[in-house]
Amino acid sequence: MNIFVGSLPFSIEEADLRESFEAYGAVDSVKIITDKFTGRSKGFGFVEMPSDEEAQKAIDELNGATVQGRAIVVNKSEPKPEGERRSFNNNSRGGESRGGYGGGGNSRGGENRGGGDRGRY
Where in the sequence does UniProt note compositional bias of the Gly residues kind (predicted)? Predict the structure, then answer.
């Protein structure tokens, strides 16, 4: 079972988290999520346990437990449905494209909002 662990102290390490969960059974993997630029913990992670029964016992016992002065949140991790995932690699406005500065759609970067060539309109 994949388990979400939130409200983690920023100083906790994966080995410490593994040790906490191993008290309830075998642990396949532990991953604390970090910021890709700074490497600093984001304060949450995931623990994978092969036995659903042991994982549920860990969830029941550790949810709300205090770790380094913080009450942690522990629950079963549910994958997001495919339709709810956000992609930052494409335009999230459904294909609408607004070019350049000023929101105009032409290749010159927007509309002319004054100055110079008023007689042209």
Answer: 97-108
